[in-house]
Structure formats: structure tokens, C-alpha cells
Specification:
- This protein has 220 residues and is an alpha+beta fold.
- Helix content is 13%, strand content 30%.
- It is built from 3 helices and 11 strands; from the N terminus they run αααβββββββββββ.
- A hairpin with a 2-residue loop joins β5 and β6.
- The protein is elongated.
Length: 220
């Protein structure tokens, strides 16, 4: 009885140290209650502790979330009744007929080109550009007329502007010099930009002209 009393009178720190030094079999281990004085505040949650391994128990798996059902398909939009006539009108409005005519004269190293450009419709052309290509290179040091620019050593591009259907003819005049003095030169004329309008007849805006070095004008 005296021995039991002495154990009960042992300080709490010594009892905890002795319990920690004592090996308890895993099968008979008992959790040691934590005194109220050192317990965590009631407002703070404490993880469950395995009394044998003193390791935190794994959290319970979250409940599976049911997948969301497929979204309802959008209601089809009925086409407007006037869509087809509008498309046909736009297609007809995008057709035009650009025509280039004129003459080429060549002598020595001089090349003279006079060009007339018109639009026979049925739609207006908001902007247009003609291209002239040559079988011989042009002299580098020469000034092109306003509205024209180089397309290479043997090509020139000239804007022919907006062309109203059946409207006024646009005129382009070029006086060029070749790099050499060949016996003849071939001039090719074609349209490279028609403002987005489709030209159903390209026979009157695409030409190939052979001009011998005689000074005579050769019409196209």
C-alpha cells in the first residue's frame, strides 16, 4: 500500500517519461489520455491519432461527384428566306469585263506604249492595276510615270484606278528605255488586280505584242 501511494505521488512529468520509456506491445497498446491543461482548444479540430503507431489516420475519401449530363444542343437557326437571292445578286455584282487596248512602238533602245483601259460591266470596278512585262531588261536609271512602279528588271505595274461600267476610258502613257538595243522586243499586257471583281472574258485584257526595232506602232 505504501508503494502504491508513492507511485501516485510521483510528479506528472516523471510519470510521462517513464511511460515513454516503457515498450508496450502493439496488440495491447492503450492510448494515453492528454490532460485537459495541455489539450488543444476545443475550437481547433485535431486529427485522429492511431494509438499504436501515433500516426495520423488517412482522411476518409471524398464522395464521388456525379458527372454532369451532356449540354442540350442549340436550336438550329432557320435560314432567312432572302439569303439565296442576296447571294445571287452579290455574285452577279462581282463580275466585270476589263479591256486593254493600245499600241507599242520600238526603235533603238526606246520603247513607247500607249494604253487605254475600260470596263464593259456589268459591275463597277473599285480599283485596277495593269502589268507590262518585257522580253528584255529595262534600263535602271529612268523615272516611271506617276502611278507606276517597278515589278522587276523587266516589268512595270501601273494603276488604272476605279472603272465604272461603260464609263470613261483610263489612259496610260509609258516612254521607257531598254538596257540594250535588241532587234525586237516582246511586250505582254495583263490585269493583275480588278478590285475583287471576276473577269469572265480575259481575251480583251491579256495581250502579247512583238515589236521589231522599226519605230512602227503595233496595235493590240
Amino acid at each position: 500500500m505504501l508503494m502504491l501511494s508513492r507511485r501516485l505521488l510521483m510528479p506528472l512529468s516523471v510519470a510521462v517519461a517513464a511511460a515513454a520509456a516503457t515498450t508496450v506491445p502493439a496488440a495491447t497498446a492503450v492510448p494515453v489520455p492528454v490532460p485537459r491543461s495541455v489539450a488543444v482548444a476545443d475550437s481547433v479540430p485535431v486529427a485522429d491519432i492511431d494509438p499504436v503507431s501515433f500516426a495520423a489516420e488517412p482522411a476518409a475519401p471524398a464522395a464521388p461527384v456525379a458527372p454532369a449530363g451532356p449540354a442540350a444542343p442549340a436550336a438550329p437557326v432557320a435560314p432567312a428566306g432572302s439569303a439565296e437571292p442576296a447571294a445571287s445578286a452579290a455574285s452577279a455584282a462581282s463580275e466585270a469585263d476589263i479591256a486593254h487596248h493600245g499600241h507599242v512602238a520600238f526603235w533603238s533602245d526606246q520603247l513607247e506604249i500607249r494604253l487605254r483601259t475600260a470596263n464593259r460591266g456589268p459591275a463597277d470596278v473599285p480599283a485596277s492595276t495593269v502589268r507590262l512585262r518585257f522580253s528584255e531588261p529595262l534600263a535602271v536609271r529612268q523615272q516611271l510615270p506617276p502611278g507606276c512602279l517597278w515589278g522587276g528588271r523587266a516589268a512595270v505595274l501601273c494603276e488604272t484606278g476605279a472603272l465604272a461600267k461603260g464609263g470613261q476610258t483610263r489612259r496610260t502613257a509609258l516612254d521607257l528605255r531598254l538596257a540594250g538595243r535588241p532587234a525586237e522586243v516582246v511586250v505582254r499586257v495583263d490585269t493583275v488586280w480588278s478590285g475583287g471583281a471576276r473577269d469572265a472574258d480575259s481575251a480583251n485584257d491579256t495581250h502579247t505584242v512583238l515589236a521589231p526595232s522599226t519605230g512602227d506602232p503595233y496595235a493590240f
